[in-house]
């Protein structure tokens, strides 16, 4: 599937092509390569065709189905879909069918989008390679020996393989942007509170964000305009009108102040750093004011994150006990039932993070670990605020390298965690950030450039991303 979301919606709304034809093309592409890629945990063929037929009936009746009319959208399998299994790629949610849709899913279908399937992920969104799924790994569709990144690897792979022009993901420490970089697509983490988290299965609630992936910056802006905005069902949702994005993409970058973050450039290998510098130079040629900037507290981002995120996961995942829903392995008493269910239901990485988080929250270590990590988080927020006094956006590599090989980091969790060194700081601060493809590294695999902006700075972030995309040709 090579057509873009905006083109598909225009054709369907104008009656030039039926939504059913679009969805059939999408399903054909999935049938051809899905056994090789494994982007999906579940393909919703019958449901997608029924939705497409309903859209076609609306068009025939003279109605406008919405800005995503007939556009296939893949949904990460940690977002609730009413009556459809939502597994988080974990055994422990075996058999669970949510009784409601996530707000973002509801907004997509209300805008005429067609949900074509639930995508694979690292279990409970804990990972950077999609190797931690209970249903097996997803492969990078550009090179099958490489990971697609994670945890939204299935969503990134679905867009990169042409299975769907748009996908939803979640981003707790880089889980949209890093796989977007590895698969050569656009990935966006909006401002915390800009997009509703209602119906997102929680990993770390102060860090989790729903975001999106698309083939182009324009398509990403189209989808964000559909899903963002206040939601009374989410207590952290921002109670103000969201910005208009699509109409501002052509504004250019004349006079925009761009800061290249030294500390994050130094984390990248030479060819990734080279591509980042080329993107910065292209922005300068387009009229932006580009300079280097130091944001020193970012050096502590990974350390703070891997105390805060496991601590919150330890609390959030306590609800999976085999009593109310999902997997249940009965024992002679309730404690045995809990133990057997959780031991069998959770994979090794989830267990590792639960134990780390429980330890960090324990009475004797709370102040030394969790409390100290939160203080470091405050330092990072303040350093970002200081940088944004001088710059409108910040630029960095999205990931330190291109996509690595399967198994390259599985035996060394710290090495895996460092894959997110460039993306984690924006989650800790709650600021928006996005990854834009910018050519390839020496190995021929995609390199992503990360554009970061202050809270609610999506408009300038998208303008800069659009300029980077245009300069890459």
Account of the protein in words:
With 473 residues, the protein is α/β, with parallel strands linked by helices. The chain folds into 3 domains: 5-248, Amidase signature (AS) domain (Amidase signature (AS) enzymes); 255-294 and 377-472, D-Maltodextrin-Binding Protein, domain 2 (3-Layer(aba) Sandwich), CATH 3.40.190; 303-367, no CATH class. It is 40% helix and 12% strand. The chain has helices at 5-13, 19-37, 45-60, 103-110, 153-160, 177-183, 217-227, 262-265, 270-285, 301-316, 334-345, 348-361, 367-388, 413-417, 424-429, 458-472; strands at 40-43, 72-76, 114-119, 166-170, 186-189, 210-214, 257-261, 289-293, 393-397, 433-440, 446-452. Strand 2 (72-76), helix 4 (103-110) and strand 3 (114-119) form a beta-alpha-beta unit. The two termini are 20 Å apart. The mean pLDDT is 97.
């Amino acid at each position: 599937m090579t057509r873009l979301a905006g083109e598909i919606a225009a054709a369907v709304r104008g009656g030039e092509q039926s939504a059913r034809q679009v969805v059939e093309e999408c399903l054909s592409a999935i049938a051809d390569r899905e056994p090789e890629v494994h982007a999906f945990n579940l393909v919703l063929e019958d449901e997608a065709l029924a939705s497409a037929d309903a859209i076609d009936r609306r068009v025939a009746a003279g109605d406008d189905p919405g800005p995503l009319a007939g556009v296939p959208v893949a949904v990460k399998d940690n977002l609730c879909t009413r009556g459809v299994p939502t597994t988080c790629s974990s055994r422990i949610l075996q058999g669970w069918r949510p009784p409601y849709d996530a707000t973002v899913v509801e907004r997509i279908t209300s805008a005429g989008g067609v949900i074509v399937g639930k995508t694979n992920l690292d279990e409970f969104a804990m990972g950077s390679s999609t190797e931690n799924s209970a249903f097996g790994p997803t492969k990078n569709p550009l090179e099958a020996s490489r990971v697609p990144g994670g945890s939204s690897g299935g969503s990134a792979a679905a867009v990169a393989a042409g299975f769907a022009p748009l996908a939803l993901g979640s981003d707790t420490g880089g889980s949209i942007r890093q796989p977007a970089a590895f698969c050569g697509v656009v990935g966006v983490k909006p401002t915390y509170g800009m997009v509703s988290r209602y119906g997102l299965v929680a990993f770390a609630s102060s860090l989790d964000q729903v975001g999106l992936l698309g083939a182009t910056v324009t398509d990403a802006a189209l989808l964000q305009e559909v899903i963002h905005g206040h939601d009374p069902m989410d207590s952290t949702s921002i109670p103000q009108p969201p910005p208009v994005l699509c109409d501002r993409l052509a504004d250019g970058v004349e006079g925009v102040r761009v800061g290249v973050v030294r500390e994050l450039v130094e984390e990248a290998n030479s060819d990734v750093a080279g591509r980042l510098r080329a993107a910065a130079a292209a922005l300068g040629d387009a009229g932006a004011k580009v300079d280097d900037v130091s944001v020193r507290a970012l050096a502590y981002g990974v350390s703070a994150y891997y105390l805060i995120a496991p601590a919150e996961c330890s609390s959030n995942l306590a609800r999976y006990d085999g009593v109310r829903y999902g997997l249940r392995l009965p024992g002679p008493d309730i404690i045995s039932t809990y133990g057997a269910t959780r031991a069998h239901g959770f994979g090794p990485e989830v267990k590792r993070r639960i134990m780390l988080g429980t330890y960090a929250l324990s009475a004797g270590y709370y102040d030394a670990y969790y409390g100290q990590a939160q203080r470091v988080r405050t330092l990072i927020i303040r350093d970002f605020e200081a940088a944004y006094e001088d710059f409108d956006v910040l630029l960095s590599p999205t990931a330190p390298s291109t996509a690595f090989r399967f198994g390259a980091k599985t035996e060394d969790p710290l090495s895996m965690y460092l894959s997110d060194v460039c993306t984690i700081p924006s989650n800790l601060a709650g600021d928006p950030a996005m990854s834009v493809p910018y050519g390839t590294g020496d190995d021929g695999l995609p390199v992503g450039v990360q554009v970061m902006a202050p809270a609610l700075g999506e408009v300038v972030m998208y303008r800069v991303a659009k300029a980077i995309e245009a300069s890459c040709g």
